Amino acid sequence: MDARSYLFVPGDRPERFMKALDAGADAVVIDLEDAVAPAAKEHAREGLQRWLMTADRSRLIVRVNAVGTPWHAEDVEMVSRSGASVVMVPKSDSAQQLADVVARLPSQVRIVALIETVAGVVAMREIAAVPSVVRLAFGTIDFCADAGIEGLGVELDYVRSQMVIESRHAGLAAPIDGVTLELDNLERLTEHVATARRFGFTGKLCIHPKQVDRVNRGFAPNEEERRWAARVLAACSEHPEGAFAVDGKLVDKPIVDRARRISEFEVQAP
């Protein structure tokens, strides 16, 4: 399984970087975009470059400013020099746009494409096929603003389904769901994670450390699922030639494959 929790931290708050890494998130996204005011962006970029030179970058992602903004080109140049290995590109609207970003980065740098506009949804298949793109993320708030959609629930079912389908078609890891804005409503967060998981997402963007544990647990197999997987795999070893029943339900290859995924669950790099 791939990283479940992606915790944002403002790029102009270096005193929070290590705290974010210690918060238990699978990945930390140092944000040079929305979390940093325009007047502070240059200072944030310079400070982040110095910090990255000596930091453990294995769980770090840098969200640069969007293509077309005054800060984008220098953000990408800084990432190229810093040794960061994963970049989140906001407002990912086309494959050509991302290919231009990739061309300015070292070949080993991977891209998380943040889909948060109608243009990005329409071009999602081509975006997912860009070689350096390893995962799609859903910028729900910005997408709703761009599309004129009110509501983050069933109103976005179509887009969530498309993101899962296009990720699978391109051979990418399952996509990352958008943020939950209610910081003090952990039950709402749990509901959002459960919905995202049912749709086939395996990760979520977090905006506060208190959200991390719920997200991690929500995307990990629970004890009931692990026990079910163990029963399926035990029965599979006894019936290697065909379908069989577990708990009164038919089990065939897709079900066995799911049981193996649950049994072998582990978190990988972002």
From TrEMBL:
Q: Which residues form a coiled coil?
A: none
Specify the enzyme's EC class, one word: lyase
The chain positions of domain HpcH/HpaI aldolase/citrate lyase read 4-209
Record's Pfam families? HpcH_HpaI
Name the Gene Ontology molecular function terms of this record: lyase activity; magnesium ion binding
What's the EC number here? 4.1.-.-
Question: Is the Zinc-finger keyword given for this protein?
Answer: no
**Keywords assigned by UniProt, alphabetized:** Lyase, Magnesium, Metal-binding
| Cofactors, names only | Mg(2+)
* PANTHER family recorded: CITRATE LYASE SUBUNIT BETA, LYASE BETA SUBUNIT, PUTATIVE (AFU_ORTHOLOGUE AFUA_4G13030)-RELATED
This protein is called what? Citrate lyase subunit beta-like protein
Origin species, per record, is Paraburkholderia domus
